[in-house]
Amino acid sequence: MVESVIKTAVVGGTGYTGVELLRLLAMHPAVDLAMVTSRSEAGVVISDLFQNLRGHVDLKFTPPDIEQLALCDVVIFATPNGVAMTQAEFLLEAGVRVIDLAADFRLSDAGQWQHWYGMTHACPGLLKEAIYGLPELNRERIRGARLIANPGCYPTAVQLGFLPLLEQGLVSTENLIADAKSGVSGAGRKASIDFLLAEVSESLQAYAVDGHRHLPEITQGLVQVSATPVALTFVPHLAPMIRGIHATLYATLIDEDVDLQPLYEQRYAEEPFVDVLPAGSHPATRSVKGANVCRIAVHRPQGGKVVVILSVIDNLVKGAAGQAIQNLNIMFGLDEQAGLKEIALLP
Amino acid sequence: MVESVIKTAVVGGTGYTGVELLRLLAMHPAVDLAMVTSRSEAGVVISDLFQNLRGHVDLKFTPPDIEQLALCDVVIFATPNGVAMTQAEFLLEAGVRVIDLAADFRLSDAGQWQHWYGMTHACPGLLKEAIYGLPELNRERIRGARLIANPGCYPTAVQLGFLPLLEQGLVSTENLIADAKSGVSGAGRKASIDFLLAEVSESLQAYAVDGHRHLPEITQGLVQVSATPVALTFVPHLAPMIRGIHATLYATLIDEDVDLQPLYEQRYAEEPFVDVLPAGSHPATRSVKGANVCRIAVHRPQGGKVVVILSVIDNLVKGAAGQAIQNLNIMFGLDEQAGLKEIALLP
Amino acid sequence: MVESVIKTAVVGGTGYTGVELLRLLAMHPAVDLAMVTSRSEAGVVISDLFQNLRGHVDLKFTPPDIEQLALCDVVIFATPNGVAMTQAEFLLEAGVRVIDLAADFRLSDAGQWQHWYGMTHACPGLLKEAIYGLPELNRERIRGARLIANPGCYPTAVQLGFLPLLEQGLVSTENLIADAKSGVSGAGRKASIDFLLAEVSESLQAYAVDGHRHLPEITQGLVQVSATPVALTFVPHLAPMIRGIHATLYATLIDEDVDLQPLYEQRYAEEPFVDVLPAGSHPATRSVKGANVCRIAVHRPQGGKVVVILSVIDNLVKGAAGQAIQNLNIMFGLDEQAGLKEIALLP
Amino acid sequence: MVESVIKTAVVGGTGYTGVELLRLLAMHPAVDLAMVTSRSEAGVVISDLFQNLRGHVDLKFTPPDIEQLALCDVVIFATPNGVAMTQAEFLLEAGVRVIDLAADFRLSDAGQWQHWYGMTHACPGLLKEAIYGLPELNRERIRGARLIANPGCYPTAVQLGFLPLLEQGLVSTENLIADAKSGVSGAGRKASIDFLLAEVSESLQAYAVDGHRHLPEITQGLVQVSATPVALTFVPHLAPMIRGIHATLYATLIDEDVDLQPLYEQRYAEEPFVDVLPAGSHPATRSVKGANVCRIAVHRPQGGKVVVILSVIDNLVKGAAGQAIQNLNIMFGLDEQAGLKEIALLP
């Protein structure tokens, strides 16, 4: 297996998706990690900040330099919302592929983006070109893409759970419910009282019930698949753990005479990173800790008309850095599983 | 404050509801903790088993002796399902009040009880007399009761959350959803691989999606209140924490022209142990840790027809031992808050 | 029990020792919580910040106003280091008692204080008057004190563990070791990356091995007791939990022919808040969660000359707020246990 | 990289060291996992028990069959103490290499083994042949070994920390102290109340202060290196986390005029799995989560005569399964790092 080496830069690798990206890239057989930029940490040895990378990543953070970035094959943005949109155009014109782990290119409608993110979009013209990087939905379009909007963590778990039902038009789209629980790493690595261990450990709570930024992203995806309007109630919760998302999805069958288990198994039979569990199963988030996989179980309590789908991912892997690498692999014609064969850490 | 002293016995105080009951009874100003029985731990100094009780409870566990129990004013069963039903009749005839923290008297229909609990009921005749000990629903009937079925933890959180909606007939009862998350103490204190820290920490999962014993209990309560059939989907989850239940409830309004916040505030205005939070709030389970209180918040995402109720309790207090003492206080004409004034431990 | 009511103010109640102090004061039978000041949170309803206090504390934070404070019987500072020392003099002159939970008055030597705390001391003249508020050591002096330096959390656990050995001169003071493990609440409630759940959960590490501010405080106390120089190695560790300190103490016996268990039991026989466990015990920090107690066990592995003392406290209670109230009770001639009878929360 | 394929069997893969071994073996480029035996789980699909292995290990547990085991190149025992010693002789005679993750061959003195493990040793004659599998100490002897006693978790962390000091005779061996903290997975995967999340989360405690089975194992190793008697006080603690050991080691310098940092760096310069941190560092256990590495920091508080060594490992990897594979690699002449290049999971 002699693969071309992909010269890769990471912009903003100081957060949790950043360090996870670095961990995965350092183990990727076809990636040359050329530079990692950070305005705040420039000059710092990366493995001084992230002790786990000692012996594996020997770069320093460098100041962002778009000319240097333009010499790479691909630039991955692990930055806050609003950064990638200011640099993507330049890089694309220089022939560089771009993957954004933030939300800049996830919504195709600039007005809606501005509503939810509270900023003017810097390059609305690119929104139409950007491909939403959910391989299970858009693999062919990712293959030829220059610009990938890497999906959010909740949207990945929720969409993979609902897809087979909506593609087949089996459930009412007037009242979908996604009750999602996330580990705290989803809140990012930033100075904050709200996510101190002493604040969030031994506790669980909902947040943003009245509107979370992932709602329009999920809805956009579900509408695309179902080709109908979709009314989704999305309630995220903060759970006292580091990693993991558990999405519990509720939908009402239009016709009760349907066998969902084989439907899900067939839909994902060829997908390397979606695992449909046997009937009656309950996936635990720990079963995907550190691994690029979504595990799904299908239930119909008491055999009724309500379908309950359980969908778990590691928010930092299939919900962020791992999915970015999956997209990179597809874009560059590599084995889709390259660098992503790690088994989840259990216990 | 001269109160009569209630001579109280606890049967089976070796589990988590047991130790919590002992902690609360030891601090209760009007309770004389006369004996604590345990078949397995008879002869053991209670505070050797539960180090926190050193200096506060100086009894030993004694072997169960129904003649001795019959000399008390009240016997509280903190036993597995199926124990209280074999002793309640004798005790009641001896003039003793009985509170069962297990499920023996929670369902009024013996057939249904036997279906869900897999045992023949030992005294189905008492099912009609037993009062379901949810004070916010049945306070007057509790006052005169001889036999209390203390509600389950999930049923307490779910019913208190749904009550105002169903009492007023505001939502469709054809598709109620209760997505509930519980700390691990709810699984009890018993030798088991499934609830080891190394199994359940840093993970979250649903369980019993196809049918949990609390489903018929909740449904029975909701039917009583709404006076209509109720179709409830109940999905419990195990969260990586010791204490706490967070119930996230979903219902669909029949008429959208209703203001729910004052409705909830008025419904619970006089309730000492139900706290309706201001509009827009998100109760955290830690806000009730160790305290006999249910905190509730009411939401209508995007102002739509779906109502989302957030309801949190400490499963061992308002969901078990604290509620039992609340019932005891009501039964014996004490201040309903006696022994229950402790403030939740935060952080 | 007709006690005088102590008009009490708290300065800076927005941290973890602050909220714990408010929780305990709100349940104290002889305290009138008159005001809680905070520069940063002035105007905020306290129970909006700390949901557990809803229904128990109905004050707002007020801006610090030393004239108002001077009308109280006692002012308790739950502020960062360096605040109390600027206000104590004025308050004392106004006849108000002062208890400082920070370190301003803990070291009797101003030069050493300035070395370890990196500030000039604002009122070195008060250092001689201030009483170090460890009741098990200084009860009589606390009784008449105007100004109490409430001990640090580590110093409380370590000193209570070493006291009986040093008072009797039984061990070499040339090589004492205190290996201490603390929950994360000890780091305080402040915006910080270092103490995010995602940073400190599922991990354990030492810190400040080369010198922690509690080292001179502990040493000062041990020197006072032993009347000899003391060489102590103190290594604190951060453990992935909210509350609790476990100090593991090592010392070498001068004469092996000594029976330590009765020595410890007798030393603390009359102490309401020190609990010497039976020989062979291992106290768990959870046994003191939320309670004002120090539990101690004494070991001599393989019957040798090395003594191992295990000493556990709740850092926020016996290590901070609870001890402050114990001091308040002593200063005002109240029952020393008033407001401190709560049993630790377990599990 | 054409390596020979090592036909490998695992006996007893149902515990935590077992599942970690399976995870690592499944990712090992030169290992053919031929069979996994379990008496209790025979017939069960392995990945039904350990969901993380779905898609990576497709074997079932099979009943132990020594004839089948004898057809393998190597048999790894991940069994309780006392199992490997009954089968090792047969396997060795059949030309199979044996690695025991339990304690059967760790102590060279059969009498001492029987004292600490409470069983008669089944094949004391093999104790002399067995090589203690700490590669940093015994690499050459491992290379030619037929039978490896894989070190315990605490002994690995403690010995790697003390080795450079004792090899050079720099510290007094009359009073060594090892204060060690372990995650709960070290207690194994077995039905037990003691290690339930609700028992051990949010708590920390010492255990076995009066004598832990790892004490003679550590002492044996230290004596071998120092060629003097060694008096070690070893106090293990249970910390509320899944994985990780933090050993805090204390020793007294004989001659204070020594520079320890370069000594440690040189001692481990060629070791692929020991990482000496820069002076002043504090290794966190999370920095080694899932990785086969020991990170060490060297301190002399206040520049005195007491040395404090901080040594962290993942108890299931460098403390068990990873070290076993490191030994396997050495025994079979493979790249010592084969299958062990995974980077620790952080956060």
Verbal overview:
Four copies of one chain form a homotetramer. With 347 residues, chain A is of the alpha/beta class. Chain A folds into two domains: 6-129, Rossmann fold; 154-314, Dihydrodipicolinate Reductase, domain 2 (2-Layer Sandwich). Chain A is built from eleven helices and 14 strands. In chain A, the strands form two sheets. The first copy, chain A, has a seven-stranded parallel β-sheet, sandwiched between helices. Chain A has a seven-stranded mixed β-sheet with strand order 9-10-8-11-14-13-12. The longest helix of chain A has 15 residues, at 153-167. Chains A and B meet through strand 8, strand 9, strand 10, strand 11 and strand 14 of A and strand 8, strand 9, strand 10, strand 11 and strand 14 of B.
